[in-house]
UniProtKB/TrEMBL annotation:
InterPro entries: OMP_efflux, TolC-like
UniProt main location, coarse: membrane
Keywords: Cell outer membrane, Membrane, Signal, Transmembrane, Transmembrane beta strand, Transport
Similarity comment text for this entry: Belongs to the outer membrane factor (OMF) (TC 1.B.17) family.
Protein name: TolC family protein
Organism of derivation: Larkinella insperata
């Protein structure tokens, strides 16, 4: 009789556990690598990083163009005026005389900046035409050829500092693009595991609901056979209600997480995403010194450290020179002529010389000059101290991340083994409950431990892969392939 009852219970269990599920649309199976590649290719964050890189490139091209010869044509053509103008007479009185004229000027110049001195040289050609319509008169004035120089004296040389700082800014922007793409990887990984955890929780909730419902139905038969108490049956019934609530909550969380991931990586397909569990981890042994060396060689932060120091030195230099003698030398030499006809300008032109020194010398500033200089020096010290602190923080972050990655590799193995044991233990507990050899309370404990072990295994994988991609972000180095990330 006992054998027949046991076969009946096993048959009921098989019927409920093996009952086919309704057909649903086929989901798209994706891996972590698939999601990372899609995010890099089509996410808004990746596109913004590419656009910013292009903007920085053209800004640097603009800087470089400033040190190449510049050819320009300027002037005003025409410049017509009809009016009355004030004319002082020989006796001191004023007479307003009518004027009607056109005074047009064209100037063609080729200039070149000199970064070493902060000045510029130019070659010039100019033509001026004056038409007096009141007297029916026309005159030409021109400079067939002139060469000149404009040279600041004792002044701050912005071009010299730009030649040092702007290339660093460009290199920094290039590394920032690589970092931005690696940040996309880290963010996509976080969203991937957010959805994966939600899907695993949904699978757990669905399986627990099915199992609890099945066990409840079996328990009803066991109650009829006197193998279980009414209290245990009510406890199982309450577990069914709790499982239904957990399933509804897990389903909602999975839909929200799916929407966040799809939105971030620009996924337009209507298919449901089904994520694979990335259990194959990369066994890495990372030397901290190697990681620090690569970080200070590749990261934009390392370039920014040098740039900030140079900018502080530049500001001190500017404060000192702006507070002293400021002079500018303007000189040119060439040929010029005038005449009633255009050709007269080029017939036997005369020498044309121009020489001028402009200067400003502060005499009494009531300490303003010293205050500006001391402020710049204090800012330089602050920049140096900030850079040193940033370096220490940067080194600590790398050291922590390397240590964390090594620990998480072992953690993944331990949680995977705990997950396997938890699944096996629950299966044994379930079988013992069917055979009336285990209480409902012990069965619930086994279920909770099984679920916790499964979640811990997924969370350990999440922490590992996040740390794996974070160390790539911090160093811009691929320790798996032993090469720089480009």
């Amino acid at each position: 009789m006992k054998t027949e009852k046991l076969l009946l219970l096993i048959g009921l269990l098989s019927h409920f556990l093996l009952k086919p599920l309704p057909a649903v649309a086929q989901p798209q199976h994706v891996t972590l690598e698939d999601v990372v590649q899609m995010a890099k290719a089509q996410s808004i964050a990746a596109k913004q990083a590419a656009t910013q890189k292009q903007t920085n490139y053209w800004q640097y091209r603009t800087f470089l163009a400033g040190f190449r010869p510049q050819l320009s044509l300027d002037g005003y053509l025409p410049s017509f005026e009809r009016s009355f103008t004030e004319v002082t007479q020989p006796d001191g009185t004023i007479s307003f005389q009518p004027i009607s004229n056109n005074n047009s000027v064209l100037n063609l110049a080729l200039s070149q900046n000199i970064a070493l001195t902060g000045g510029s040289v130019f070659v010039q050609k100019q033509l001026q035409r004056f038409d007096d319509f009141q007297r029916n008169n026309r005159l030409y004035n021109g400079i067939p050829f002139a060469v000149g120089v404009r040279q600041p004296l004792f002044q701050f040389n912005a071009m010299k500092w730009d030649r040092k700082i702007e290339p660093l800014k460009f290199d920094e922007s290039n590394q920032q693009f690589i970092e931005a793409m690696e940040q996309v990887t880290v963010d996509a990984t976080g969203l991937y595991f957010e959805l994966l955890v939600a899907q695993v929780n949904l699978q757990i909730a669905e399986k627990n609901l099915n199992n609890t419902d099945t066990l409840y139905k079996i328990a009803r038969h066991k109650l009829e056979l006197g193998k279980i108490s009414q209290n245990d049956l009510l406890q199982l019934q309450l577990s069914v209600l709790t499982a239904q609530k957990d399933y509804a909550s897990a389903r909602q969380n999975a839909e929200i997480a799916s929407l966040r991931l799809r939105s971030y990586m620009g996924y337009r397909n209507e298919q449901t995403l089904e994520l694979a569990v990335p259990t194959q981890i990369v066994e890495l042994t990372i030397d901290v010194k190697k990681a620090l060396q690569e970080a200070f060689s590749n990261r934009s932060d390392a370039i920014a450290f040098r740039r900030k120091i140079l900018e502080a030195q530049r500001d001190v230099d500017k404060a000192r020179k702006d507070n002293g003698l400021n002079a500018t030398l303007n000189a040119s030499f060439g040929l010029s002529n005038r005449g009633a006809h255009l050709g007269d300008v080029y017939i036997r032109p005369q020498d044309r010389e121009y020489f001028e020194i402009q200067f400003v010398l502060p005499i009494m500033t009531w300490g303003r000059a010293q205050a500006r200089t001391e402020t710049a020096k204090a800012n330089q010290q602050l920049a140096t101290q900030s850079v040193e602190q940033d370096k220490l923080t940067f080194e600590q972050a790398i050291y922590t991340q390397v240590t964390l990655l090594q620990m998480l590799q072992q953690q993944v193995k331990l949680t995977a083994e705990a997950d396997r044991i938890g699944q096996e233990r629950y299966q044994i507990a379930q079988n013992r409950f069917i055979l009336s050899d285990l209480s409902v309370t012990d069965l619930g404990i086994a279920m909770q431990e099984k679920d916790r072990a499964r979640r811990d295994a997924i969370l350990a994988l999440r922490d590992y892969w996040t740390a794996f991609y974070t160390i790539r972000l911090l160093t811009l180095y691929d320790f798996e392939r032993n090469e720089k990330i480009k």
